[in-house]
Fold each of these.
Amino acid sequence: MIALLKKVLLVDLLRGLWVTFRNQHPKHLYTEQYPLERPKVAERFRGAPRLNTNPDNGETLCISCDLCAKACPENLIVVTSVRNEQTKRKDLTTFTYDTSRCMFCGLCEDACPVDALELTQDFELASYTREGLIWDRQMLEEGPKPTRYTR
Amino acid sequence: MSQTFLDSNELVLNMGPQHPSTHGVLRVILKLDGERVNGTECVIGYLHRGVEKIAENRTYQMFAPYVDRMDYVAAVSNGLGYVLAVERLISVEATPRAQAVRVILTELNRIASHLLWLGTHALDIGAITPLFYTLREREEVLKIFENYCGARLTTHAFRIGGLQYELYDGFEREVNAFCDWFIPKVDEYEELLTNNRIWRERLTGVGILNAADCKRYGVTGPVLRAAGVAWDLRKAQPYCGYQNYEFDIPTGSNADTFDRYVVRMEEMRQSVRIIRQAVGAIPAGPIMAKVSKVLKPPVGEAYVSIEAPKGELGYYIVSDGTLNPYRVRVRPPSLINLQALDQMVRGALVADVVAIIGTLDIVLGEIDR
Amino acid sequence: MAAEPWEDELTRALAQQFDNRIERFATYVGQNFLAADCAAVYDIVEALRDKWQFDYLVDLTAVDFPNRPKRFEVVYILYSYARNERIRLKCAVAEGERPRSVVALHATADWLEREVYDMFGIEFARHPDLRRLLLPEDWQGFPLRRDTNILAMDNQWVRENLGIESGQ
Ligand code: SF4
Ligand code: SF4
């Protein structure tokens, strides 16, 4: 009898509807209004690569050891350097990083002994061309410049 | 397809590869007699990337991020299986701290995987609302992953020998908060679905695969447990310290789609239970065991499997003593579970095919590799 | 660390039943395996299933060793729910040799054997429907053989389709 009453009165459906109704309140809003509001990504986020420079004199921190290129599973980092006769060290000449093939696994940044290469919190890497996805040293040092949208 | 495939009043229907309810690029050729399904044939391989071949050209460490891309909704489990297999080959065990963190993340990932399954499965059946809720809850799990390792989906969270990242401040608090917040949400899904008459009508008695057939087809995971076999690798052959945690294996009895739903719902609760125990007692200590950077496992082979959200996920790795694995074979649970589809849909209606594919919880990235 | 011999009730019984057709029983990193003659595999799998409750074929795969006289090694991973035990059965298969399919014993083997055929070109005798599983039907070659070079494949593709020398 009760079962029949429940069936006729659509109790099961109404209970479900009640759940939906409870979630209607504006405090349950969850959608992010990207790109008007930019989400805050985690500190450890593995996004756009950056080649760090010394903040005092703008020189690169990279010692051209090539470890990052060797660690990368996709072989997408190319580091070239010339030997500096005065300091007996290698000077970085070019550094290319092909973001189109990168899977942001973080192995290169783990491999870097001087924390020169770092994956940063920038996540907008889109480009209109394929070539635009291959970043050179300048791009890596300055970081991407995505369009900012505001309300 | 052979010539005898068709009877004169039968019709062939192509479902997929671009069908939303095949959960990826799966093509199912259905042989229909009216609304009844008389046979199926699955065409897979659209997502084949040659992961096993890639492994032969990478070092052991370099290959780790690739496994995340097989079952991309449970990347952490994939990573766990792989690192455990390599650790077995080099006879190294991760430190206790690393093991506890691994358990927490893997169980969180199980929840995330089941949530995505629930949302899409319900969507296939026609209940749209749960998807929004499950994705909202899953988002919280992904946030914990993002805070921990910097990626949400393809996490690459574990390394051979332990972990790369130390826990961040507030990890325990966040995980505990998630657990407290999540349990009422599971009840909420149940409120939406379990007693909903449409949900019950669509699922009860559909896609029955009994225990004997499960074993014959090698089906594992929630599908096997819904058939009443309380078999879970976490209990049967514990790995990564699962023997230290208390949890139950939920089982069903009718082996139908509804039971599989109940089993998975209960599994989420059990995962929370494991997480609560683990997060309360993360041992201090190093997170990385001593593993050489130049990793050359001795000649030999090992098969290690774990209980992934979808079933038994195994890695068979053959080493020839060099830097690169000689052969990496992945035993994906989805591929083997999908094989039972034919048996399950025979005699069912076309609309049930969608429900049955959903209940198998397949991920095509893992099937095709 | 080398593989150590493995001996227990099961191995003694199997050795007695199949005598010289099982080449060795061994255990490595705590995992037991046996190597057998390719022709005996079907019988061994059947005996294991019926007498020893190894009722779950976990995986079936192959490994290619081009330098061995019999270049392939087909690996069967079996599990027993009742005994909670997992073993591996390996057999060497020469190029062109056709091991007997175990689909009749374990339905799981259907796709797994197709995949092995797809990737290695090992044909299984009496398989109900041996076609490629993952790759397209008109695919040339068997990619998981060790002598398949993916770079060469890549270059051939760009040469034919894009008219340039190398894609790298
Ligand atoms: S993140 Fe991974 S794929 Fe990308 S450059 Fe670094 S190592 Fe290579
Ligand atoms: S590992 Fe670091 S220091 Fe070495 S080449 Fe790469 S970025 Fe430069």
Amino acid sequence: MDESGFDTMLARLAEKSRDEHYNPYTKFSWPEQVSEDEWWMHPDYLTVAGTGLVEDEKTLKALARSETVNFFSLHVNGIRELMIEVSKRIHTPGYADYNEYLHHFIGEENAHMWFFAEFCYRYTGGIYPEAASPLRRDGFGDEWDDVVVFSRILIFEEIFDYFNSRMGKEPLIPDILREIHAAHHHDESRHVAFGKQLVKRLHERACAAAPERRDDMEKYIKDYMTHSVRSLYNPQSFKDAGLPNPLEVRRKAMAHPVRREFHTKVMARVDRFFTGAGIFSTPWEA
Amino acid sequence: MTASTDTAMDTVLEFLRQCNAEVDTIDWERDLIDARILDSMAFVEFLLVIEEVTGTPVDLATTDVNTLRTLNGISATLTERITARD
Ligand SMILES: [Fe+2]
Ligand SMILES: [Fe+2]
């Protein structure tokens, strides 16, 4: 996309954000309770789907609940860190073109964080804590750190969108959950469109400034994709679903060939983007 | 080292090998992060492996993760945790 194409896209996305702006605090009608007899996620989208590791319907329904909590918690915890990074950059030199849209981004992510957390606190024991690394990540240098931040956001958004776009029209799940997934999907389609173009530009800029780090970056982004997929498998959700050996189930499920195929599907779109943009020299491997 | 500590160490080595195959030739005193066997992302997964093989969660409030940065350190930690458990 050339300069003027990019500007047109930014203007169009900002306009859409303005037109479609909603009040998250009044948008949803929260029911008194959400029945535990219902599937909170379609069983095909549970982390054990296709593995035969868990067969009992009651346990699977419990897992659909705890994996909903995990999924929503991943957004709350993940986007907190990424919003900090975006906030550090807005209205700084080099971001002038993006300021307007970043305002929408931060505003919308703030709304998402609220409704995802609100669901967990209303109907469950609340969000799960973050599985943060005790080690600090080494920086890659200014230009490359920009690529890191927005690539992470993009990967994160694509994973969410894979689930949101499907759960957002899934008749099996309770209305409030379908509405939350659909609302998120709606905003994220704009974020993803913006994110792809931004990452491409930031990557070009970083390559011009410090080309020797290009391969390291490819490895880092791919590792982050692997890490993100693994975060769907939270030992705490297996524990909360009443499974006696959460770590073993997690390990077996993650390594199952059916699941690896699923991981490839979840990542297919973002992987195609990275490869197509020349950011990856080879595709990501699940 | 007892038999169960040996098996535990083997499982950890297998995990580290998947991160970076060079772990097989590395000095057991060498820092695994500096040697690029482990990074901050893989470390999250690594802690779960330690938890599974020892049967006790790694409490980050009371564990000095620096003791887990070398193979000798990991081995000592496994021995300590498994002995305490058995
Ligand atoms: Fe979001
Ligand atoms: Fe987003």
